[in-house]
Amino acid sequence: MIRCSVEEFLKAILEKPFEEGWDENGEPPLCILYQEILKIVKPFDTFLEVGPGFGDFSLYLLSLGKKVEMLDIKENDLIPMKKICEEKGYNYIFHLQNTIEIVLNKTYDVVFAAEVIEHIEDYKKAIFNMIKLAKHKVILTTPVGGSFYSPDHKHCFSAADFKFIDKPYKIRSIATKKIDISTNKRAFLIEINI
Asked: Which sequence spans correspond to the domains of the chain?
């Protein structure tokens, strides 16, 4: 398997869109969840990504002309993404804040957090904060059980751990049946309709 820099990884995303799918033996690997999420978010225009990591999904949304803001407790991982945004003329907003204590005076069509809530001690409060910021949907992904173990994970989730969300909001889908190409594991895809 060929290794590439974060900047090369991000540029590859723009050259070969998530919707097309990538060769599972190629570099970088594609998360099947992103294909599913893109189907859900396609009609929407404004996004807040909580815990963007390297900013790959936000960068892709920016390339589609979407309005994207990101929120995280650190921003060093986003340096390559910011460089590409400058080169391409993409506008984004970054908020340096704790996920638990989100303080923003606006709402977004979709609030999105991929592989984030398992790292947050008070994940319920974080989810409700995300719900307050969403006009239409909150989309979360997280490992099924301990299938993506990391010492940084504070939780291993089962479907029952998300029952608290049900009222007054509705959860449309909760578990993936497909395997993630990059990890060969299953993940939850939680779509909360506001």
From this structure: 6-193
- Structure tokens of 114? 């991929």
How far apart are the C-alpha atoms of 140 and 190, rounded to whole Å?
Answer: 5
Residues 6-193: name the CATH superfamily: Vaccinia Virus protein VP39 (3.40.50.150)
Q: Rounded distance, CA 135 to CA 122, Å?
A: 23
Q: What type of residue is 53?
A: G
* pTM as predicted: 0.83
Q: What is the 3-class SS of the chain, one letter each residue?
A: CCCCCHHHHHHHHHHCCHHHCCCCCCCCCCCHHHHHHHHHHCCCCEEEEECCCCCHHHHHHHHCCCEEEEEECCCHHHHHHHHHHHHHCCCEEEEECCCCCCCCCCCEEEEEEECCHHHCCCHHHHHHHHHHHEEEEEEEEEEEECCCCCCCCCCCECHHHHHHHCCCCEECCCCCCCCCCCCCCCEEEEEEEC
Long-range CB contacts for residues 19-26, cutoff 8 Å, separation at least 24: 22/181, 24/181, 25/1, 26/2
Compute and round to an integer the Cα radius of gyration of the chain. Answer: 16
Tokens of 141: 């992904």
pLDDT digits (tens, 9 = 90+) for 129-180: 999 999 999 999 887 776 666 777 778 787 888 888 877 788 877 766 655 5
Pairing between β-strand 170-171 and β-strand 187-193 as defined by DSSP bridges: antiparallel
